Amino acid sequence: MGLANRSRKQRRMIKQMFLDLQALGYTGSYNRVAAFSRVWKAQCHVAEQTSGPGVFVPLIFGAGKAFQFDWSEDWAVIAGVRTKD
Questions:
Q1: How far is CA 37 from CA 1, 6, 18, 48, 53, in A?
Q2: What pLDDT does residue 32 have?
Q3: What is the residue range of 24's domain?
Q4: pLDDT tens digit string along 30-62?
Q5: What string of DSSP letters covers 68-84?
Q6: By the 8 A CB rule, do 37 and 14 touch?
Q7: What is the spatial distance between Cα 80 and Cα 85, in angstroms, rounded to a whole number?
C-alpha cells in the first residue's frame, strides 16, 4: 500500500518526516522537505487522474465497423388496435 493510499493517521506528517531524515543525517532545511512533499503530492494527484477508474477512452468507429442492436418489442395502440412495432 502506497503512502498516498494510507489513512490520515497512518501517514507521516511532514514535520515528523523531517525529524526522521535529520536522524539519518539529512542536513537540509524543513522548507526543502515540505516543498518536495508538495511536488510529490501533486504528481500523485496527476497520476491518479490518468490511471485507474478515472480513465475515459472514447469509442469511435468508422461507418459500418460497429453495430448496435435493439431486440426489444414495442406495442402501440393505433386507432384502438393494439399493434406490435
A1: 18, 15, 10, 16, 25
A2: 94
A3: 1-55
A4: 999 999 988 998 888 887 776 556 566 777 777
A5: -------EEEETTEEEE
A6: yes
A7: 15
What is the band of 5 on the pLDDT scale with cuts at 50, 70, 90?
low
Is residue 41 assigned to a domain?
Answer: yes
Which letter does DSSP use for residue 12 in this model?
P
For residues 18 and 24, what is the distance between their CA atoms, to the nearest angstrom?
A: 10
| Inside any domain, residue 80 | no
pLDDT at 1: 45
Exposure of 9 in the CB half-sphere (CA atoms within 13 A): 0
Average pLDDT (63-83) is: 79
